[in-house]
Amino acid sequence: MENEENSLGKEYKDGNIIFKENSIGKEMYIILSGKVKVIKERDGVETTLAILDEGDFFGEMSLFDNYPRSATVKAIGNVKVLEINQKSFLKKVSKDPTLAFRMLEKMSQRIRKMDEWVLSYAVKAQDLVNESQNYA
């Protein structure tokens, strides 16, 4: 059995997959304890996109769209997460609307970080193109 479930959440052991890229899900997760890594795998090469810690959340996009998961999430060491489905999320937001604001704030930070990452790679790619043209 990959994980253990109790009333306070689900527990995962080191290396256990919480969900896989391209799987279908309608839940998000909040890390109660431990760390997870968010990864993409291409041609057998695993790239770590993020390391998330206690208090962080992941899988939230599945609450808002019908697309498959965009990455795989694995436990680093022992991890305990709280799983929240769409119905529970909407209930929590109706009781505490600031929850939605805090999530949007965190998602905005992630988008800004991704923008910076994409820009840095675009600059590197342009530099390579410029260098190769110098040798032509």
Describe this structure in words.
This protein has helices at 86-95, 98-135, and strands spanning 3-6, 9-12, 17-19, 27-42, 45-52, 57-58, 72-85. The protein is α+β, with helices and mostly antiparallel strands and 136 residues long. The protein folds into 2 domains: 1-85, Jelly Rolls; 96-136. Strands 1, 2, 3, 4, 5, 6 and 7 form a 7-stranded antiparallel sheet that branches. It is globular.
Main sheet overview: 7 strands, antiparallel
Radius of gyration (CA) equals: 18 Å
Based on secondary structure, the structural category is: alpha+beta
Number of strands: 7
Mean pLDDT: 88
**CATH architecture identity of the largest domain:** Sandwich
CATH class of the largest domain: Mainly Beta
The CATH topology of the largest domain: Jelly Rolls
- The run of helices and strands is EEEEEEEHH
Q: Count the DSSP helices.
A: 2
Cα separation of the termini: 58 Å
CATH homologous superfamily title of the largest domain:
Jelly Rolls
Low-confidence stretches are none
Total separate domains: 2
Could you estimate the helical fraction of the residues in percent? 25-40%
How much of the sequence lies in strands comes to 35-45%
